[in-house]
Amino acid sequence: MKYSFLFLMFFVSVTGFTQSQWQPVAGKISTEWAAKVDPANVLAEYPRPQLTRSNNWINLNGLWEYNIQPRQDVEEFPSAFQGNILVPFAVESSLSGVGKTVGKDNVLWYKRKIDVPLTYRKGRVLLHFGAVDWAADVFVNGKKAGNHQGGYDPFSFDITDLLKKGTSQEIAVRVWDPSDEGPQPRGKQVKKPEGIWYTPVTGIWQTVWIESVPQTYIAATRQTPDIDSKKLTLGVNVLNLAAGDELKASAWDGSQLVAEVSGTANTLIDLNIPNPKLWSPASPFLYNLKIAVIRKGKVVDEVGSYFAMRKSSLAKDAEGISRMMLNNQFVFQYGPLDQGWWPDGLYTAPTDEALKFDIVKTKELGFNMIRKHVKVEPARWYYHCDKEGILVWQDMPSGDMGGNAWDMRAGQITGRQLDKDRTPVSEEIYRKEWKAIMDACHNFPSIVAWVPFNEAWGQFKTKEIVDWTMQMDPSRLVNESSGGNFFGSGHILDIHHYPDPEMPDPRVFGDKPQALVLGEFGGLGLPLEGHTWQDTKNWGYQSFKNKDELFNKYAEFINRLPKLIKMGLSAAVYTQTTDVEIETNGFFTYDRKVLKIPVEKAQQVHRQLYQ
Q1: Model confidence, pTM
Q2: Which residues are CB-neighbours of 273 under 8 A, at least 6 positions away?
């Protein structure tokens, strides 16, 4: 409540904007949360739950000025702006209040005045962006603070030396995004949406905020649990260390101290956890973590975090079948393909309550896993998964698609090597962003598998990329290419088969230990009048006329899975959580107002998968 009040007072005093200066763009369906969006209090929750400080941050979401201008004028700061845009909703979205397409030939400018309290000048002032799609140049008081390329990873700039005297400051951001006309990761965004391809997302689409930190401060942590050794390996990146500075870390079960250790910053230290409580969908227990920098007996900086004792691995079961293991036990992983799109906010959920809704409902329906499909979510989405107890497979957003063959034969995979030849620039963009995504998401225990490629969408140097991914994070499984071209690398062999469920042929790679999974199936469609993105030409892999027909076919599919599980299937992914634009094959309609299969029926049919 304190943060919301402070932000409201800050917003009104600095901008003078009011509700009357913003309205959602009409013409499309919306969720019930759209009506709760207040431009004076937009997504006000603390945006970084894995690294928290108390009270010294200001949320910069809200109304900014915007301008779209030709890209050839990229160096020219706009002399005037076209109107207001509600950050952090992409300019194409309804909730932005703009609803315009930018395209590769234009750039999008943002500008706003902010107040930076004089008390912030005692240390450093950081400007944080949750995500900006795609290339961003950031200016403070007309001077360049830095630039960033990557639509899915958070970034920050130290703007202390760019601040003017007094409290009033100006921030401007210039964004260029070629959508599907560039080689960068962009998921399902295309300039001409159709079928399984959706509206472009350009510009700021996650929370913007400033933070005051001491001169010496904790910039990042890396937390890796080891349940076999009963320890948490902790790396803490501290900037501007002084000689003799120490690091102190402690683990807590509520108010009870579990373990503590002292060590040196910027090195790895082990926090021993006696009798660890293991995290799982059945018991998503989280430890609290406190980390402090100590100088001559005094705390210089302190942050809060959390972690879980959880293991994701590959091993053979009692029958000698390679399985995806959770905490050294085989748990069948079943969940929906989750695109993470919203009819009103596109990439951005209208509220934190909305962001959590999909996760909670997924768990209620009897799923224990979500495959986050060619998109990366805000940190709070993974935080909710950690708290609720949902396993996550994290895809790398696809990009630079086309130009390579795709060999996908249901259950009969030839292993033909059909990698795409990408340019050095394209390869570098991919590697840089994939590493940044994995680093940003490393601490979330809900993520149990990385998926570097989906189908053959831009798939290149598969063995090299998979090996590199495994080296960067040995603590998780790597799914070589979900439904793509297979080379026998990584921990998982994953086919897609629509609409009915099948499984990979275990003979494809002989004795090579890989878990067999069905990375996509289903796609059963049911368009419901009044809840569709468009009135006609809605689409599903197989469409039905009513909920009963839909459920009967769905139950028929699920009833086939136990046989496949006994034969070696470790996981399955059903398409999908919600309808998305003209796709109508979700459990929920796109506006999340109608659930097509009742919770009780879904739970009943799913229960057999975990026995």
Answers
A1: 0.95
A2: 230, 231, 232, 251, 258, 259, 287, 309
